[in-house]
Amino acid sequence: MEAAMGLMRRMPPKHSETTLSALLSLLPHHSSDLLSQVDQPLQILYDVDYGKEFILCEYNRDADSYRSPWSNKYLPPLEDAPYPSSELRKLEIEANEIFAIYRDQYYEGGISSVYMWEDDNEGFVACFLIKKDGSKTGQGRRGYLEEGAWDAIHVIQVGPEEEGMAHYCLTSTVMLSLTTDDESSGTFNLSGSIRRQMNMDLAVAEGHLCNMGRMIEEMEGKLRNSLDQVYFGKTKEMVCTLRPPSEVVQMRLPDS
Q1: What secondary structure letter does DSSP report for 101?
Q2: Pairing of strands 165-182, 186-203
Q3: DSSP summary character for residue 151
């Protein structure tokens, strides 16, 4: 199991589905652990009743059906499916509306979904999802990439309220994949994933959504900086070392 998780961490996100399928065939007795611990690129489904797309993941799935955060229905229909309580459903609806604004301001498009459910510790769990297709034919408004995808998964465990305080445990995963193909840069592919965790005890006077929103905003800023330094920074350093810019090469040439 440890070797399988190590392999999944080293595979590009665009190949994770194929790799996971192969590992499930080799390790059927670890299938539940693999499915619960391995994050895969997010998929999209269209809610005909509500007329909007929503994101598929393990957190809104039951059997082979997925619950839409908009209509609160399972697609395809499923009998005896689990649903959040009426109080938690109201919070889920509000979270989807607010998170859609956050997504549009930070990502300039894309698709977002929020799911909530009760846990066994008298608290609840919330999952905030964002999928941004940055390709020329995707939801991106700039379209610089031939192919590009940003998948963000934020899972927050909220403990029961005690003396006006609650414990929040945020686990965030970002999967990035991009490909360029033009005359200036040629064909270039970059992909990877990163996961971080954050724990905080916060007052609930302003509501759970405010606290969760601040944590997600702070975490996404840290993840973007890490991706910029690790993936883009190291790639630029290696490319410039192997193929110095023409200006540097000209400076090193001896005078004729």
Answers
A1: H
A2: antiparallel
A3: E
Measured CA to CA, the distance from residue 81 to residue 79 in angstroms comes to: 5
Whole-prediction pTM: 0.82
Structure tokens at 76: 């395809």
Residue ranges in the chain assigned as alpha helix (H)? 2-10, 16-26, 31-37, 86-107, 208-227, 234-242, 246-252
How far is residue 119's CA from residue 106's CA, in Å, rounded to a whole number?
30
**4-30, pLDDT tens digit by residue?**
877 777 776 667 778 878 888 888 887
Q: What is the CA 38 to chain-centroid distance, rounded? A: 12
For residue 214, count other CB atoms closer than 10 A to its CB: 14
Q: In the chain, helix, strand, coil percent, each to 5?
A: 40, 35, 25
For residue 125, give the nearest of 73, 81, 84, 67 by alpha carbon: 84
Run of H or E including 145: none
